[in-house]
Amino acid sequence: MKAKFKILFSIIMLTVCGYAQIPNNGFEIWTSTNGYQNPTDWGNLNEITKSYSVATCGKLSPGNPGSFYLVVRTVSVTGKGLIPGRVVSGKIDTINYKAVSGYPFTLRPLSLSYNMQYMVALPSDTAFVSVLLTKWNVNLLRRDTVAYGVSNFNAMAHTWFTNSTYLNYKSGDNPDSACIVISSSNNVPLNNSYMYIDHLLFNGSVIGIDEKSLTANEVMFYPNPSYDKIFFKFKSAVNEPLDLKVIDSKGTLYHKIENVKVEDFIDVYQWPKGVYFLELMGKKTILKEKLIIN
């Protein structure tokens, strides 16, 4: 009986550790500083805007899931101009708004998933989520990039949906640090651009650096938006079986095709209108594309 209990306890601990990859990943823990709520373990820019009675990040409820979620918003501050809503899973430089450090991390995930809503003031602004995995080079005394990924958003989505940022590996080493940046604006910030985000999780595992990410230049999806059929065609050879999944805006698997053909189509005539996310997945190939059904 004791042996069974130990095995069960070990399984539970592994499960908990698997979901404890990111400090305060559900933004359930907050620290009150000078009247502002700051997400614990996440650096932010409230420190430089508090004296102007505005905040670049804060907590809202209910979460998706949980009690709370994070909101980041670009604000206008007299004498300082536009300041993006930006948080970092570590420390942030309050002068140049860039990440200074991350947190200890040694895994090699395939992607980072999260639940979100967003709206940029104009398409010229770009909200983003980025992930950087690094390892300290003891010989050259510098940080080397192990993997990097970024997702950009320059439109709007006013209902919760699940998105994934896929990582592109540059090294076969395991990292020793991870840095996640969530920002309501990029290099051309606009007032009131914002993002809601919750439930960050690393998913999958990558071995080596043979993984290849298909790009929009290698696969055609048309027409998009569509109301009838969406065709897809590979422009270059893919030397492995690929499965196609369609995820709806709630993050639920809506449609699946195993071992897709070089040229094929999806009949969407009876699908509800809205935004969907198409994923082509293989052992060494990944692609994610947004579909609009109207």
Overview of this structure, please?
- This protein has 294 residues and is mainly β.
- It has two domains: 21-203, Galactose-binding domain-like (Jelly Rolls, Sandwich); 212-293, Sandwich (Immunoglobulin-like).
- It contains two helices and 26 strands.
- Strands 3, 8, 11, 13, 14, 16 and 17 form a seven-stranded antiparallel beta sheet that branches. A five-stranded antiparallel beta sheet has the order 4-5-18-12-15, with no helix packed on it.
- It starts with a helix and ends with a strand.
- 33% of the residues are buried.
- Residues 1-20 have low confidence and may be disordered.
Assess the beta-strand content as a share of residues.
over 45%
**Helix fraction?**
under 10%
CATH superfamily of the largest domain: Galactose-binding domain-like
Coarse structural class? mainly beta
Number of domains: 2
At the fold tier of CATH, the topology name of the largest domain is: Jelly Rolls
End-to-end C-alpha gap: 58 Å
Instruction: Give the helices and strands as they follow along the chain.
Output: HEEEHEEEEEEEEEEEEEEEEEEEEEEE
Residue stretches low in confidence (pLDDT < 50, at least 5 long) are 1-20
Overall geometry comes to: globular
CATH C-level label of the largest domain? Mainly Beta
Topology, pairings included?
Elements: H1 2-19, E1 30-33, E2 36-39, E3 43-44, H2 46-49, E4 57-60, E5 69-73, E6 75-77, E7 81-83, E8 86-88, E9 91-92, E10 99-101, E11 103-104, E12 111-119, E13 127-137, E14 142-153, E15 156-166, E16 168-169, E17 177-183, E18 194-203, E19 212-213, E20 219-222, E21 229-234, E22 243-247, E23 253-257, E24 263-267, E25 274-281, E26 285-293
Parallel strand pairs: 19-26
Antiparallel strand pairs: 1-2, 3-8, 4-5, 5-18, 6-7, 8-17, 9-10, 11-17, 12-15, 12-18, 13-14, 13-17, 14-16, 20-21, 21-24, 22-23, 22-25, 25-26
